[in-house]
Amino acid sequence: MSSFQTSPGMRDILPPESSRWRAFTQVFADVVEAAGYQQLIPPLLEDLGVFTRIGDATDVVTKEMYDFVDKGDRRVALRPEQTASVCRSFAQHRPVTPWKVFYSGPNFRYERPQRGRYRQFDQVGIEVLGVDDPMLDVEVIALAWEFYQQLGLQQVSLIVNSLGEPDDRSRYVEALRTHFAAAGDSLTEQSRTTLGKNPLRVLDSKREPDAPFIESAPQISDFYSDEAAAHFDAVQAGLRALDIPFTLEPKLVRGLDYYRRTIFEFQGGTLDSAQNALGGGGRYDGLVEALGGPATSGIGFALGVDRTLLACDDEGVFAAEPRDLDAFVVDVVGGIEAVKLTAELRQAGFAVDRGYDNRSMKAQMKLANRSNAAVALIIGEDEVANNAVVVKPMRGGDQQTIPRSELIEHLSGNLSQKTGTHD
Ligand code: HAM
To answer: What is the pLDDT of residue 422?
Structure first.
């Protein structure tokens, strides 16, 4: 065992899994770029104040933040998510609206590590600033849905709710406060503490003694203003028109405090309920303002890469596929010939690896085999003398000696038939 190991909740994403991660991000980028979203790359570290706006009643802010004082005496934190950073960026740069951005990358939360829950975890996501139209809510949800389809996931369910306009939400929160306060000590101690900070979050409790009080709690839909109800109706009508199946879940509140109006979550059917949230999002119409910008409506989502890939494993879709090599150069003589050949082929667009250290033919052929290359290119004494290369197909077929000057043409013809590339 080496003397150092990754810290709890942190992992190396090793090959070939790492290629799958890259492919995952690429599929996501392709889906959202085709809808007019452009990439924003915010820093991993921000002023702590950016993230405290996520809500002082959330675990993310109160318990899980990786915050510290830097050498310049600034109170900073590793980002626990990227929505707040996107809003900070908007407030700072004031781009023209609508501002449609996507992002991908790691986030940090000091959580108790378990399957699907890590302290460093990746998300992909989108955010749109400056649009109130419920048809945007539909677009945002539909893009996540499209992404799941592209991955091949079938067991994803979408749940949606609306928290109403800020006033509706405040009246609802007061009604919940009264309702849960009446339960007194029958509520769990944790829920009584949560009640003091944010009664909405009591609805999130999965603790058994809280269940009957959550069941009998007032419903948010009874508090919607006409405007909020119309907005939410339009969102649902849009989802139906696009044939996106969803379930209304009036008790969905989500774990972050900045949400207003539409909220949604995607759940994976194969995962345990503690970490079955594959992703989620919603509107956060006051967040830019809270970060010093103009009043701006906002909506977006973030999808957890780790959990989504676990769901892919469970469903047997979106497998890891490292790039196959075209050729593996077996250098039996040692020297500059193999260096030149390898460089020339790479420049011509072939994917090529090679053997080193003048190892035996047998050892290098073993490497060639393991590399999954289509052909081995063997350079021995005779080949150097005759200015030729032996081309040995690795998946059946006779080996041939090809003059060096004709090699690229030969490989182009032969490999294109086998791999469909290099036409
Ligand atoms: P969130 O629900 O906190 O929302 O995170 C979104 C997704 O990130 C979760 O559904 C989950 O898949 C993944 N995730 C969260 N924490 C962990 C963890 N410790 N380990 C592994 N995966 C995790 C947000 O972050 C909001 N910024 C979403 C949003 C965007 N709302 C509006 N725009």
So the answer is: 41
304 and 397 in a single domain? The answer is: no
Assess whether 311 and 387 both reside in one domain: no
Q: Is residue 1 in some structural domain?
A: no
Domain boundary among 254, 281, 315: 315
Q: Quickly count helices (H) and strands (E) in the chain.
A: 15, 16
- The domain total for the chain is 2
Residue 383 lies in a domain: yes
Backbone angles phi, psi at 152, to 5 degrees: 95, 5
**From the CB of 80, is ligand 1 less than 6 Å away?**
no
Reported as a single tens digit per residue, the pLDDT across 343-397 is 999 999 999 999 999 899 999 999 999 999 999 999 999 999 999 999 999 998 9
- 266 touches ligand 1 (CB under 6 Å): no
Atom in ligand 1 nearest the alpha carbon of residue 281: 31
* Global pTM value: 0.93
Cα Rg, the chain, nearest whole Å: 28
**For tokens 């082929």, what's the residue?**
345
Q: Which of 280, 315, 350 is the last residue of a domain?
A: 315
For the stretch 79-97, pLDDT in tens is: 999 999 999 999 999 999 9
Please, how many CA atoms are within 13 Å of residue 144, restricted to the half-sphere of its CB? 35
pLDDT digits (tens, 9 = 90+) for 159-210: 999 999 989 989 999 999 999 999 989 999 999 998 988 898 899 888 899 9
Residues 277 and 361 in one domain: no
Could you report the per-residue pLDDT of 234-270, keeping only the tens digit for each? 999 999 999 999 999 999 988 888 999 999 999 999 9
The amino acid sitting at 258 is Y
CATH of the domain at 66: 3.30.930.10
One-letter-per-residue 3-state SS of 175-208: HHHHHHHHHHHHCCHHHHHHHHHCHHHHHHCCCH
Percent of the chain having pLDDT more than 90?
83
- Cα dihedral sign for 137, 139, 144, 148? positive
Residues 243 and 346 in one domain: no
Whether 33 is covered by a domain: the verdict is yes
Dihedral sign of CA atoms 366, 371, 374, 377 in order = negative
274 alpha carbon – ligand 1 mean position (Å)? 13
* Residue 171 maps to a domain: no
> Which atom from ligand 1 is nearest to the alpha carbon of 111?
19
Q: Collapse the DSSP code of 1 into the 3-class scheme (helix H, G, I; strand E, B; otherwise coil) and give the result.
A: coil
Which structural domain, as residue segments, surrounds residue 287? 17-165+224-315
| Band of residue 419 on the pLDDT scale cut at 50, 70, 90 | very low
